[in-house]
Amino acid sequence: MAHRPAGTLYRGKLGMWTWVLHRITGVGIYFFLLVHILDTALVRVSPEAYNSVVASYKTDIVGVAEIGLVGAILFHGFNGIRVMLIDFWRKGAKYQHQMFWVVLVIWVILMAGFVPRQLMHIFGA
Amino acid sequence: MAIVIEQPDAPRSRKGAQWEKRAWIFMRISGVILIFLIIGHLLVNLVLPERGVKAIDFAFVAGKWASPFWQVYDGLILWLALIHGTNGMRTLVNDYSEREWLRKALNVTLWVTAAALLLLGTLVITTFDPCIDPNVHNYLPDLVCKG
Ligand code: HEM
Fold it and tell me: How many angstroms separate the CA atoms of B134 and B72, rounded?
């Protein structure tokens, strides 16, 4: 197995990119959570205040963006389980690639259930 | 400005190491619980109701929080997700901020924000009063409002 040194720039493969994606999704979800706590707090103010702000979640644009949010949460969540298995399972590091594909399959199945349902709610009669 | 690079093998203080280890463990325990709580949250609020997100309004929230189960459920998500997220953000701040004063300021901001929102969210859930809606009896007929 002859490996040529790849220079000084670190170029990890799948493991690095899933780590990057885990970070980005984590940050995105964090900022959504801040907003979501504040909008929900309006139920303590008045029904009108809450209803008018929640109406923005029902618009076409936010309704579609919500698909991105759910996709980010599901990736972060199941990849988080993969990270824990790498940490605690004896063979975790060995199977980290295979576990990524498992995460991806679970993600695709759940999104295949969620996306049409959400589109129906947003654009349906 | 002189850049100080820490000795890589300099041990952390015992207390610092303890704290980091607990934070590390917390990220994992909260993560496992959160995946169930969040998937349940999405199902109950976005997926299962006939009209999905379009069904969410004051009455919807009042209906859920009439039950202590959903109050505890939402309180648990609030605390676990916000502390998990804040501690995750702390990791990023520690990784990327190059100036020590900025790093400290950002971390203080993160925890002050978390404390304020935990207090706000917990108060909202525990002191929620459906009676502020004059039409409340249309959807909660058994509710008794004072005054
Ligand atoms: C759905 C359930 C979740 C699971 C299973 C999960 C799992 C994890 C795990 C295991 C880590 C640590 C990674 C490491 O130490 O290398 C982590 C990091 C992180 N999580 Fe989560 N998490 C979940 C939900 C959330 C939520 C709701 C937020 C935001 C409010 C969030 C934000 C973050 C952030 C910002 C990090 C730091 C990323 C980094 O250090 O690269 N996570 N998550």
Answer: 26
One-letter amino acid identity for B97? S
Q: How much distance in Å is there from the Cα of B81 to the middle of ligand 1?
A: 9
Contact of A86 with chain B, judged by CB distance below 8 Å, is answered with no
Closest Cα in chain B to A77: B35
Inter-residue contact B117 to A37 (CB < 8 Å) = yes
pTM of the entire predicted model: 0.92
Alpha carbons B107 and B112: distance in angstroms, whole number: 9
For ligand 1, the distance from its centroid to the CA atom of residue B88, given in whole angstroms, is 6
Q: Which CATH number fits domain A16-123: 3.90.1300.10, 3.40.30.10, 3.40.50.10490, 1.20.1300.10?
A: 1.20.1300.10
Give all domains of chain B, ordered by start, each with its CATH number. 26-139 (1.20.1300.10)
Closest CA to B46 of A110, A70, A76: A70
CB of B41 closer than 6 angstroms to any ligand 1 atom? no
CB contact under 8 A, A81 and B35: yes
The pLDDT profile of chain B, 147 residues, written as one tens digit per residue, is 577 777 777 777 888 888 999 999 999 999 999 999 999 999 999 999 999 999 999 999 999 999 999 999 999 999 999 999 999 999 999 999 999 999 999 999 999 999 999 999 999 999 999 999 999 999 999 999 986
